[in-house]
Amino acid sequence: MTWIKAAAEAASYRRMYKLAAEIVGSDMARRDMRKAAKRVMRVLEEVIDLPIADALLLARARRRFSELSAILSRPLDRRELTETASPGQNDRAMELH
Predict the structure, then answer these.
(1) How far apart (Å, rounded) are the C-alpha atoms in residues 22 and 62?
(2) Could you tell me the end-to-end alpha-carbon distance of the chain, in angstroms, rounded to an integer?
(3) CA 33 – CA 28 distance, rounded (Å)
(4) Distances (CA, A) of 51 to 13, 20, 44, 45, 46
(5) Is 18 helix (H, G, I), strand (E, B) or coil?
(6) Per-residue pLDDT tens for 69-93?
(7) Helices 31-44 and 13-24 meet at what angle, rounded to 10?
């Protein structure tokens, strides 16, 4: 599943957190993707295992995840592929977007 599709299907905060963690840990993710994913994780890390969380915190998490989704949906240009991917990764990077 692509990250874009996973982001569109992430209905729970746990799924959002899991996707963000996957992106942070991926060598395939661009720097802006990892940065946005870290922001999602920081908001949710203290409450992700709790049965209930503050509504303002969850609203902030939703905004951060929307920012991440927008970055994931942004098309790559050739310069970004050259700067972020090591040789042989360009094909895989294009698959993810």
Answers:
(1) 17
(2) 11
(3) 10
(4) 11, 20, 13, 13, 12
(5) helix
(6) 999 998 866 555 555 554 444 444 4
(7) 140
